[in-house]
């Protein structure tokens, strides 16, 4: 699947010129979120769903689609076999071009999806197959320079400011635009977070609201500090939003995302960098 060249890359790592402790994310970050529409069927019933995704070029010119595994496999981690016979039959991706026009691409449901060897890590990388119109490309996307590595996580701390763009139930439905929300790291990012007595993979808790439709949203840590100031850092894409922790009144106010290092793991485990554009 072709994508635009470097002139359209989101330039998150440029050092901001304004002198403030935390920096406002670029406007284009809002539109890095793509809306996913899915249909799953067991041959009789059809279940429709909405989620969020973003695009990642790992260096081969392919627009890999990043979202949650549970978006593609609705039986994933379910406590009952209720959805075990449901298969993905339709996958639609909608985004915006730099001129603000909307475009939609139908992805072939049989396209390959790759997951982490750790079953608990709720992240999927999709190799898109689609029939394109003339001169049609994927637009806004990230590359590996934007993706936080394990070393970058040494500079992510509790109470750090984050933001995430996506299509939760409260997105702009009239104009069909994503919304950008913010939060703060709630757990110690040096360790994996678990909301009960079981291991749930490489995830981090944050204080903020995740709701249906926001699954798969890119999570972004804003730039912090000033040049030559201790504990300063650049801005990074640090994870994939996955869900929230239920509370007494429906939402506890705590949500969680899977670390960007899971994406690196999927790339390495499946040798994805060797897949080239045909």
Can you characterise this structure?
With 278 residues, the protein is mainly beta. The chain has one domain: Beta Barrel (Thrombin, subunit H), CATH 2.40.10.120. Helices cover 5% and strands 31% of the residues. It contains two helices and 14 strands. The chain has helices at 69-72, 261-269; strands at residues 34-41, 46-57, 64-67, 87-96, 102-107, 113-115, 124-126, 142-143, 161-166, 179-185, 203-207, 218-221, 236-244, 254-259. The strands form two sheets. Strands 1, 2, 3, 4, 5, 6, 7 and 8 form an eight-stranded mixed beta sheet that branches. A six-stranded antiparallel beta barrel has the order 9-10-11-14-13-12. Strand 2 (46-57) and strand 3 form a beta hairpin. The protein is globular. Mean pLDDT is 85; it is low at 5-20.
């Amino acid at each position: 699947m072709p994508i635009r060249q470097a002139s359209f890359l989101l330039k998150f790592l440029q050092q901001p010129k304004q002198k403030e402790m935390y920096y406002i994310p670029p406007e284009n970050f809002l539109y890095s979120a793509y809306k996913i529409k899915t249909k799953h069927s067991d041959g009789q019933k059809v279940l429709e769903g909405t989620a969020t995704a973003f695009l990642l070029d790992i260096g081969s010119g392919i627009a890999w689609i990043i979202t949650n595994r549970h978006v593609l496999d609705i039986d994933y981690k379910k406590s009952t076999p209720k959805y075990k016979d449901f298969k993905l039959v339709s996958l639609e991706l909608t985004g915006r071009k730099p001129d603000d026009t909307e475009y939609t691409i139908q992805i072939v449901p049989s396209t390959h999806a790759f997951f982490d060897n750790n079953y608990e890590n709720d992240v999927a990388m999709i190799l898109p197959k689609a029939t394109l119109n003339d001169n049609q490309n994927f637009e806004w996307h990230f590359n590996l320079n934007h993706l936080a590595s394990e070393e970058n996580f040494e500079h992510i701390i509790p109470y750090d400011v984050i933001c995430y763009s996506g299509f939760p139930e409260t997105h702009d439905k009239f104009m069909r635009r994503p919304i950008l929300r913010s939060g703060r790291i709630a757990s110690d990012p040096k360790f994996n977070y678990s909301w009960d007595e079981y291991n749930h993979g490489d995830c981090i808790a944050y204080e903020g609201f995740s709701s249906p439709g926001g699954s798969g949203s890119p999570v972004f840590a804003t730039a912090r500090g000033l040049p030559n100031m201790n504990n300063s850092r650049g801005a990074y894409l640090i994870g994939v939003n996955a869900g929230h922790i239920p509370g007494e009144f429906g939402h506890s106010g705590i949500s969680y995302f899977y670390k960007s290092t899971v994406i690196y793991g999927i790339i390495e485990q499946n040798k994805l960098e060797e897949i080239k554009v045909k």
